[in-house]
């Protein structure tokens, strides 16, 4: 292959992209390929990305065309880009929108084709055919209105993603305006809200701490209609309520909470995913909330966590405007395609480092601390059943002293100790003499502890995964992760996100991941770090012995 430039990227015919991390143009190349390539592996020196159809279609829906994608590949590639790959990019992106869902003045919802052969192909598909009605002409076929969402799901799976131009109902009008007396929407928040509104439905991807709630509020103001907001938990819902009261013209009486504790349905109703998916006598009775009012807008906070029953209900809500908010579109269950089909494509995506450069989120140092298990712990791990191995190595008692050393190094800094296993967290709570927040902690007690942490009365909190999402703890500047949900990339991103609110002193955040070396713990840690590596965060690796000594010794840099 002929060498053509000294670019940082090697583009291969199997649609993998190899990025040389230490190359001076690597950050620019990473930013250029991020809209259409997904990071697969991120070891020290070369990161591997893959160009997938879904990534290309998301890029297309977000306004990127094939010419821009080809230009990015050619500009940064060290060698000539394989011609078949470039052709495939053009062809794949060209598939998006060849089929369109359009509202016909006489026939209602229709599927219109810009390519007659494609329409004939999908009409003959056994899964598509039952969703279609009569054919109006060579390019148009009637669609059963109730099948709008499911049709998009199936068309995506057969490789012909439809562009949904069928419009939306306005819903029940309700005046909502932003109260920008002592604050203003940031430029990227305004762009995100505008991009969403122009598309009518879709997902906005912003870093944790970048003010996704304000994008939601701006969308609500544009809609001027009753709004249903779905959130991860009650504490997050109450944060939404406080923000909306503070930043909009909405009053407390206009905002209802629909949770395990209360069932209020008001012009703006905030419900938890948990209560929506709770079964009663085998039925998801609370899903009726979707039909309880003529909602003009539905907001899905942390959309990457959307549970399957809500997906199913969302398939029936395609005539309503839908906004998904998230820090990452990564789903560990592989259902990114359902988010694309049912919530909508990615409308706006801001790289974390861009927002950091603007000063809206704090810079962060990521450190992986590698712990050597004791001989006894290693023996226990060696003979453990496969399903017990991860818990054993990630909850090793050896980690406790390392956590203490980290807290000692950052004395006085507001610190979160985060883990996945309750017995480990309770042990840390005892050893560190600080409170533990877990799933069984009552909401009222959680809020009291979070408030004490925010005020500085509490320096350290031990938290389970209940604090992964949507908890606003702007003062936190250090996090110590002792265990996680296996290799969850989105969990890693969310945990770092707890630290990214800008600090009053402009200081840096510190994110530690304490990992047992030569075990599954280390393997899963490497997988968890992939998303943050894609966003430009480098993990520095240090040995626990260096931390436990009088000073931290030399460390090895790694991405």
UniProtKB/TrEMBL annotation:
Pfam families for this protein: ERCC3_RAD25_C, Helicase_C_3, ResIII
GO molecular function terms noted in the UniProt entry: 3'-5' DNA helicase activity; ATP binding; DNA binding; hydrolase activity
Species whose genome carries this gene: Gordonia amicalis
UniProt similarity note: Belongs to the helicase family. RAD25/XPB subfamily.
InterPro entries with a match to the protein in the record: ATP-dep_DNA_Helicase, ERCC3_RAD25_C, Helicase/UvrB_N, Helicase_ATP-bd, Helicase_C-like, P-loop_NTPase, XPB/Ssl2_N
Catalytic activity annotation: ATP + H2O = ADP + phosphate + H(+); Couples ATP hydrolysis with the unwinding of duplex DNA by translocating in the 3'-5' direction
Keyword Nucleotide-binding tagged: yes
Protein name, entry field: DNA 3'-5' helicase
Helicase ATP-binding domain segment(s): 193-347
